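[agent] plan:
  1. take the single chain provided in the ticket
  2. run structure prediction with default settings
  3. attach structure tokens to the ticket
  4. add a short note for the reviewer (M.T.)
[agent] executing step 1
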Amino acid sequence: MVKGGPVYQFKISLLGISPAIWRRIQVPESYTFWDLHVAIQDSMGWLDYHLHAFRFAAVEGRRAIEIGIPGQGDSDDATIPGWSVGIADRFIRPGISVIYEYDFGDGWVHEVLLEGMLLREPKTRYPKCLAGARACPPEDCGGISGLRELLKVLRNPKHPEYAGMVGWLGGHARNYLPYEPDQFDPSKVRFMNPKQRLEKALSGKG
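[agent] step 2 finished; step 3 output follows
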């Protein structure tokens, strides 16, 4: 028997964009929502520079809740700390989904869908990225409309804003060059330690 309990398989889809940008990941059942947040960030390719929130709508007698970092959003009093809630408490069966928003300024909204609860594979480390499509948008590009404009400019080297856009991508906190919007390789995903990330976030150094 493989020890450690089951794994939860999620599909994360960035909403409002076509062609779709999505990831499929597996995480331990023991994960908290903070841990899941870190796994989403790392698999998508975000840099975790901004606020985030999981938002569950009221359904089947359960009230609507927001899970994130209390004291850092618009609805501080109502936000439940992500590190205090296990994913198993809310994802009780396959088919349940939650809205995950990252960067309240740019407004990147994701659907996080629980596809299944599976047995662990022997000698496999979790979390794990199984599949996905297309590159993550660059941080601070201005949301969906900003991404569309960025891609429009990059397709035309003669565009008057081309040199500026390329310079911005190369001088970003992460060097995005060459930015290839249609490319994604799940084997290149590296997951960080969520406990260390939490310590940085709470210390103000994240």
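[agent] step 4 note for reviewer: The first strand starts at residue 7 and ends at 14.
[agent] ticket updated
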